[in-house]
């Protein structure tokens, strides 16, 4: 994994500086012309509603943001391109300024990767020169929004599946192009999946990868193929090699007799494919059962190959189904595994993992995860990657202070108002470690104390309420200080473990996927007073 | 644009070879072990249902596929990674084979970028060595599926908007990470949008880019700022420079008197922001009106700056609204433009473009595009990029022949059956150029002749029907032959024009967005006979 990070770091930044909306560049020129390019500014990146109608989100994408910020530097070609779309009489000093920009004056505080995140709590606080931190808006939103969305989606799917089922992300082909796929694979793992089909996510991000064979492999065999070398040595390497094709043929007869099938019924091409795969992967043989008929072809062919391998000391890693009623078929197959295990005295066969896939969404996953299900591994593509229930997160990046003065957007749409000023955020916990509420306050206020009562303002409330937290956790960590990484980022696997641990401290009422309880994010009295005083001035 | 292509071509491939599902690599080893790595194979990439419940799709992504294929080459690090996840005793010859792979034996036929595409008609036919063309499955699906989805989505939005409204794609921050955004911007332009906010899409793909200013720019000004240089020369450069802040102040008084507002009402920070922007972009000034109050602040401030600029010979490029009832506000603003134009004898003001944005979906777009709407420019983000009505296309890549023999997937799910054999595809047209139906036939059959009756089989039909096309167009063009590009790819703008032309030949009944007529894709008698004979053999 360290090597993986290294390859990634060497390979490229997470995004290029010009991966930004043009208006960031036009505003940059505006700030420049107004003499404000280097004025100190702070933006907050947050969301206003949890995705999918849920009550929580997972913060993700920070590692990509850090990689992007540390590598941030416009190249000559980038500046030339901007010059080509900006007014021809633009001050050349502006382009020199752009060319010299880097993030050495940028400071970022952030919710650690995998944290529980709630509406209004900043995922990122970005401070630095106004022109620069404005330019960063779009790439940071692009890097955080989808990562957090897909991590949250994966966490929901994990909650539905329960802790035991293995979840495989396999949505690369349904993603929004190459990096869409890479982002999806990385952050669905962070959110609670076990592995991904995406090989690049394995290489670059250290995500465990998985995969065996597809229908095209099976249907590419007619049965007339002769393996150039059908001989297989025993698993222990002790004893003579065996012609696997011969052994499979013998086992097929026994299996067909037991299952009351004609030995001609199982498709010879499918069997040839299974034999070819088993010769390449004797320790990792999986049968894809539904290219022809599951019960009359796929299953007997699988059993013949699996039992032939077993004679040599190998155990198959499973079977896979990709069509039909997956729950019902898994039950039937498990039943057959049990009778065949008894018949041939191969007890390991009873517990051969059954993997399923085929457009599995939250509803179908709940069915597959129900009590008594014989499904062990669930592959999910489209539903995890595209987040069809809500395919975007709606993060925003809002100016909260400039030149040391708090700023607040006072639009006619109260929904779109922002909270002014540089802020700190705390999580208030009960004595059992469960979450009570999140508190936003001004950065200069002293942190709340455990065991001490404090007055807080829920949004929209007419008066404050009181809370006495047993524990207090600061939420935002200093991540980049003047461009320098303050502490090593946790590995992806560590962030994944942190996400699962965080979720375990969330009251079940907030984890309900439909109509959950709403977790409160409240304001300190001082922050509320600032909001009131800026609002009282009115929009004018 | 030629430079753009060059930068892109030099910069990187569209995707890396390991951006693939692991099972492609495990199957590769299976083919290798079976001695079949170099067997001739052909796959077809197609979709089974048009997206969004519509009756057509646009083919897109070919340029990325070509770029990917021409650069295809596994690096040492890639092969090492694969070795780390494959069995440790794998034949080293396999890895040597992988390391030496390129697409010099791959031939691709394709629907040209921007073509109308219908279910079952191949977007790509990919032939070459079995192991290699199998490895290509996932990246090709990844590159084609989302590109075609978003191009189709953009074409639908264009149909709703009509030809006159300008459509701006601005969804980068809502896309699935960096390349998700780049793909979205590129192919929504192809599908009929006019421009994108995505600067990188401008630099790398030649997409026209657009953008002016955001609320953060406006709210970053308090009004106390003093521009270092408030002087502006006239548009013609003839005559003295003018202090824009002074001129704006004078105009503000006149405008407020006319609008019956107190001169203190319009927000001074907003006005300072407009002045700063106008100083940077005197020829491209746009006012973002809704940071505070549209009618009591944004509009009078805009008018003051626009009229001050106009005195110097500059014309503003428009106003933008990002909240509230966009249609109603546009109407009010147009009305005010008219009275102010009359009052101050500035007729150009009547037709200043009104741009709108704010979560615009198909329904809201229809409202904004209705007869009498005063909206001119429509910015769409989430709805075009995430395709929320159906966020994935469901393209598949299926084996149709191997070793010269047709292959067909005969699953228990008839939906998932495939059409066997190497095929040709034709579009049959009426004498007025309108589309009748698409015909799939075996590659070896003579092409259908214009004016000649032929028997064809609609899917699921019990008997053939007859058709006499006035014109016949072959659909698939040879794109790569043994790895060599056969003809230069059209530019993105050419493909965009081709898409609009293709759509104009589609009968309106097929273009309805809800419950459209279903366009038929039929089979030749020979192809149907092959399907029947392979089916008759049954799954076994």
UniProtKB/TrEMBL annotation, chains A, B:
Subunit structure: Homodimer.
Enzyme class, spelled out: ligase
Record family assignment: Belongs to the NAPRTase family.
GO biological process: NAD+ biosynthetic process via the salvage pathway; response to oxidative stress
Family annotation (SUPFAM superfamilies): Nicotinate/Quinolinate PRTase C-terminal domain-like (SSF51690), Nicotinate/Quinolinate PRTase N-terminal domain-like (SSF54675)
Species, as recorded: Nannospalax galili
Post-translational modification: Transiently phosphorylated on a His residue during the reaction cycle. Phosphorylation strongly increases the affinity for substrates and increases the rate of nicotinate D-ribonucleotide production. Dephosphorylation regenerates the low-affinity form of the enzyme, leading to product release.
Annotated Nicotinate phosphoribosyltransferase C-terminal domain residues: 423-530
Cofactor(s) the record lists: Mn(2+); Mg(2+)
Any Pfam family hit: NAPRTase_N
Protein known as: Nicotinate phosphoribosyltransferase
């Amino acid at each position: 994994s360290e090597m993986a990070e290294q390859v990634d770091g060497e390979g490229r930044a997470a995004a290029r500086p010009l991966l930004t909306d043009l208006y960031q560049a036009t505003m940059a020129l505006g700030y420049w012309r107004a003499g404000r390019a280097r004025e100190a500014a702070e933006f907050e990146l947050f969301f206003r509603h949890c995705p999918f109608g849920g009550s929580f989100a997972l913060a993700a994408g920070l590692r990509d943001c850090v990689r992007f910020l540390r590598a941030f530097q416009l190249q000559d070609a980038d500046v030339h391109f901007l010059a080509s779309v900006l007014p021809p009489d633009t001050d050349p000093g502006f382009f020199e300024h752009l060319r010299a920009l880097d993030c050495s004056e940028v400071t970022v505080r952030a919710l650690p990767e995998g944290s529980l995140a709630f509406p209004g709590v900043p995922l990122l606080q970005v401070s630095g020169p106004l022109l620069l931190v404005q330019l960063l808006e779009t790439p940071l939103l692009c890097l955080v929004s989808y990562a957090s969305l897909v991590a949250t989606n994966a966490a929901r799917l994990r909650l539905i599946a329960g802790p035991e089922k293995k979840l495989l992300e396999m949505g690369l082909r349904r993603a929004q192009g190459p990096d869409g796929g890479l982002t999806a694979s990385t952050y669905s793992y962070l959110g609670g999946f076990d592995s991904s089909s995406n090989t690049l996510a394995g290489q670059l991000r250290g995500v465990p990868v998985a995969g065996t064979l597809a229908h095209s492999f099976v249907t590419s065999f007619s049965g007339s193929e002769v393996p150039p070398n059908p001989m297989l040595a025993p698993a222990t390497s002790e004893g003579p090699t065996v012609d696997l094709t011969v052994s499979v043929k013998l086992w097929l007869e026994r299996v067909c007799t037991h299952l009351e099938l004609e030995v001609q019924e199982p498709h010879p091409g499918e069997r040839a494919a299974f034999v070819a795969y088993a010769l390449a992967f004797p320790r990792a043989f999986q049968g894809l059962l539904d290219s022809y008929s599951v019960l009359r072809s796929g299953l007997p062919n699988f059993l013949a190959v699996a039992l032939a391998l077993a004679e040599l000391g190998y155990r198959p890693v499973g079977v896979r189904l990709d069509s039909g009623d997956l729950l019902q078929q898994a039950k039937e197959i498990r039943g057959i595994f049990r009778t065949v295990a008894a018949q041939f005295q191969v007890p390991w066969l009873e517990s051969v993992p059954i993997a399923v896939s085929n457009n599995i969404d939250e509803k179908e996953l709940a069915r597959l995860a129900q009590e008594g299900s014989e499904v062990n591994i669930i592959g999910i593509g489209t539903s995890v990657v595209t987040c069809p229930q809500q395919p975007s997160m709606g993060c925003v990046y809002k100016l909260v202070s400039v030149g040391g003065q708090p700023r607040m957007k006072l639009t006619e749409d109260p929904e779109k108002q922002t909270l002014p000023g540089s802020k700190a955020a705390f999580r208030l916990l009960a004595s059992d470690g469960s979450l009570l509420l999140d508190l936003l306050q001004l950065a200069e206020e002293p942190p709340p104390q455990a065991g001490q009562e404090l007055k807080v303002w829920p949004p929209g409330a007419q008066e404050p309420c009181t809370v006495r937290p047993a524990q207090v956790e600061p939420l935002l960590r200093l991540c980049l200080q003047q461009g320098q990484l303050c502490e090593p980022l946790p590995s992806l696997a560590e962030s994944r473990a942190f996400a699962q641990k965080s979720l375990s401290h969330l009251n079940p009422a907030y984890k309900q996927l439909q109509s959950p309880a709403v977790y409160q994010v409240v304001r300190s009295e001082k922050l509320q007073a600032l909001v009131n005083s800026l609002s009282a001035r009115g929009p004018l």
